[in-house]
Amino acid sequence: MMTRKQTAIAAAIVVVGMLAIFGVLRGTANQGGGDASIKGESSSSKDGTEHELEGLVRLSDTQVRESNIAVTQAGPGTIRVFREFPGEIRFNADRLAHVVPRLAGVVESVSADLGQRVRKGQTLAVIASTGLSDLRSELMAAQRRAALANRTYEREKQLWEQRVSAEQEYLQAGAAREEAMIAVQNARQKLNAIGVPTKASALNRYAMLAPFEGVITEKHMTLGEAVTEADPSFTIADLSTVWAEFIVAPQDLGAVRVGERVTITSSAMSESTEGTVSYVGPLIGDQTRTATARVTLVNPGGAWRPGLFITVRVRQEDQQVPVVVKADALQMLDDKPTLFKAVSGGFKAQAVVQGRSDGTLVEIKEGLEPGERYASSNTFTLKAELGKSEAEHAH
Hints:
CATH class of the domain at 56-79 and 320-394: Mainly Beta
Radius of gyration: 47 Å
Strand content: 25-35%
CATH topology of the domain at 56-79 and 320-394: conserved putative lor/sdh protein from methanococcus maripaludis s2 fold
Number of helices: 5
Largest sheet: 6 strands, antiparallel, barrel
């Protein structure tokens, strides 16, 4: 049997042993926790590096020069503020002609076609008209009577001077001659009024002529067709000038004035042009509740075709803003306007919040500070390189 002293010693040994085991286990646990912390820090460091590399396009200075990428420093600038109005190109009504037959008749020939460019005085069609035959016959008859009346007058004058005939007969011959001359003038004026020559080889034919140089935009005439003075046969438009008409709401009428310089653009074409407001309507439309304004455009190349939808930009007061960039610098990435900031070793994509724009400069409200440098040209190259890099990283 064990004594009390031996029992106490054994109990103490057991307690010490348990404490030693507990300490070892705790140390092991702490060592494992330390490893997890290190791994976490390593993972966090790795994520930070990847975040920094996200959106980065690495290019050397030589590659930047070869790609013609210009780098510009952001700073304050002036935004030209415009007010835009929708509109449409229309014919210049002052240079639009509806050519109609001068006399009823039958179409003998048609020498002009739709879309054809014609010169002033060019024959469009030839019409055979009994009415014209009557007018020319009337002139010829009046000329014959005038010639006879003139001979009679000369004879009566000679006889009166010789005291052979009475003065009354001489005066009557003079009056008859005057009436005959008036009849000739009347018949000639009738022909002049319809724009046909008084002399022609065929009494019943006349030519329809182009009143000025232009393009045939409408044609309603066929060979053998019977036509009247009320039938519109041709429409000719001089497209060397056109009208740019646009609508103005009542609250915007103060911004559009005659003589104001405007810029005209169209989504259908890359070029733009400038002009001067030549007309602002004095009335508000009953249905549209807008007024019509007009710009007369010189159109030598015919690029501004009637029917083309346009945007008329009227310049307002300029605005000073703290940060502007060139409009060509912006690209859309993930449906967000993005700039490429110049950083060490290349460029980094930076989403921005843009403000006002005049087509050349764009205000940047967020994402770029004054003094920061950015790629201002050929940024589509950077966008393509970024897309290629992200695709390779995904694989």
